[in-house]
Amino acid sequence: MNTKIVVYLALGSALAFGACTNNANTKASAPVNDHEDHNHNHDGHEGHEHHTDHNHPVEPTAGSQKQSTVAPKTVDPISNIPPFTFYKVKSGVSFTNADLAKGKKTIFVLFDPGCHHCRDEAAALAKNYTKLKDINLYFVSMNDPALMATFLASFAKELVDKPNVQVLYDRNQDFIQKFHVPSQFPANYVYDVNGKLQSYWEGEKNINEIITLYTK
């Protein structure tokens, strides 16, 4: 296994059990050359020790430390939607880039079901569903599908069973290997009708700003 995959798998494991932060981090969609230190907060994930307002780098696993002595760094997301395979939480059926509804903007929300900022964003989106019915909205997580299965029903009931909304399990960690390695949850990625990245941000953001970025 090469160094890049080892690092990504270490990050996937850390993010899957991480949580969200209060600080939104808005970034332009255009590629840049500068890299940023990869940091994230742990904040009240169920079944794990709680950490509040405590930032720290994601540490490599013991296996990856032999190949790298520094915390991994992240770059901007991929500029066009790449090939991917996720799985519908309800049915377990695979969902790929070929299944994206054509002629619509596509939003990916990378989330943790135990993150209260992720829950708050989902609840706010649900209350504004009439403004979102013409876009593809996909909630993606690497977490336990059992936790994901009740996410919308618990926090965003208005989004349940909507034809343009899916909760997708990223079983093979395609997102962090092909799209982006975020530092905060929820991480939002807005792609236009041609699959080109328009904008993305990490962490909490005002719902009016979110709706504007989703629909403009």
UniProtKB/TrEMBL annotation:
Signal peptide: 1-24
Pfam families noted in UniProt: AhpC-TSA
Superkingdom classification of source: Bacteria
PROSITE patterns: PROKAR_LIPOPROTEIN, THIOREDOXIN_2
Keywords: Signal
Chain residue ranges for the region called Disordered: 28-76
SUPFAM superfamilies: Thioredoxin-like
Biased composition (Basic and acidic residues): 33-57
Protein name, as recorded: Thioredoxin domain-containing protein
Domain spans labelled Thioredoxin: 75-216
